[in-house]
Amino acid sequence: MRKIFWITFLVLIPLSIGLTLYNKLFAILLVVVIGLFIMGVLDIVQKKHAIKSNFPILGRLRYVFEHLRPKIYQYFIESNIDGTPINRLNRSLVYQRAKHERDTIPFGTELNVYEKGYEWINHSINALSFDELKFDSQVVIGNSQCLKPYSCSRFNVSAMSYGSLSKRAVLALNQGAKIGGFAHNTGEGGVSPYHLDPGGDLIWQIGTGYFGCRAADGNFCEKDFQENSQKDSVKMIELKLSQGAKPGHGGILPASKNNKEISKIRGVKEGTDVLSPPRHKAFTGIKELPGFIKKLRDLSGGKPVGFKMCIGNQSEFIEMIQEFVKQNIYPDFIAIDGGEGGTGAAPLEFSNRVGTPLIDGLVFAFDILRGFDIKQHIKIFASGKVFTGYDVLRLVALGADAVYSARGMMLALGCIQALECNSNTCPTGITSHDPRFTKGLDVDSKAKRVASFHKETLHAFMELIGALGLESIEDLRRSHIYKRVNERESKRFDELYPLKEKGSLLLASKVL
Known about the structure:
It contains 19 helices and 15 strands. It is an alpha/beta fold and 512 residues long. It folds into two domains: 2-70, no CATH class; 130-511, Aldolase class I (TIM Barrel, Alpha-Beta Barrel), CATH 3.20.20.70. Helix 1 runs antiparallel to helix 2 and helix 11 (314-327) runs parallel beside helix 13. The termini are far apart.
């Protein structure tokens, strides 16, 4: 290929010069040929890429195709149901509901209803219409130890930081939350002006980097926390113990996204990789967690305080719950994130192989709270691949009081699943800070789409409740959902995930 390269340009360069002397219009051809020649020479002499060195110019196509591969696969190869991480069926549904377009499908389901893992609900002959339902779209977060309970939507924006997302994306999400009357989780990057300006309700998430309440040495700052937590827009505080994208690993903000404004908000050095520690330093171990939650609640003026985690070592979670019971201090909520979650940067090993998937984690957490008879004190949020009304119904049936959606909300903003969230090249401007991309994201129109997706999803959820013949969300049980365990057999969720008796673990622990 190198010989072909030299021979080709030994012919093309003199030919281009001759044509240019004949007619100046051919000067453009000469510039192109010389440019390609220089590019090829640089490919040959560089030592980093063998493909480019052995195949000058042509070798660059390998990197072009590699960049285009996810787009080509998504648009031309995958079916409606086999795409990952989110299939086209769900992506299209979110787009349709966000735009308030027709969201019905023709010609029946594309799913294989006899395939292992298929789930369904059995409708009632006494199905109810939407107008006949007792639709309580809000749930009150805050136990008796909380002075300022918050009436929260059943469906909310999951944690995504300013930094991971662009300022226009954050503005649109918060404005959409205000329009639709639901909450916007800030993510661990702190409360930015773009979270505050639209006036939507905020759940301020505090990670191990303590952004927004970070002292000069990187530790927790009580003064800054008190100041920020008492802002009117901040309705709840969520302490992040771990996240589904990379449980057991701290947050990651690539240097390419850490601009001057973000570094100021976070209290870190501009243009550096921001790597949060894998665990908290403001408290030591499980025994100090209840006291730290009480401190946050007191400093915030009595607002609801909870924590987010992906279930890991089950004995540690049980020990944590025992400590809450022993100290008689309870979080107002626990957000369970699934090991399959994630919108930003994460090491492959952590994303693929660490943390309990959402269904298993949610069932375990609910049953432990019920077993220790403290579920009445603590609401549960669930987060992980929530796109449809059925996704909401399944999580609520398994024990969630409310749900979060991250990627669903990103799709409502216009995300095309380009899989460039961990770089600064997102073509839709959602996860990029490059003005070339962000200028195309219109805040007002995208905010309306986010609000529409929220409204239509909850509507679909309630229609499913009606199809079951139930009048209220509170009547939903695990027994309403069926799952195929093999080609000829199916089981109800209450058979797959038997409900623990209320207080049974509390009695067992007393005996021990």
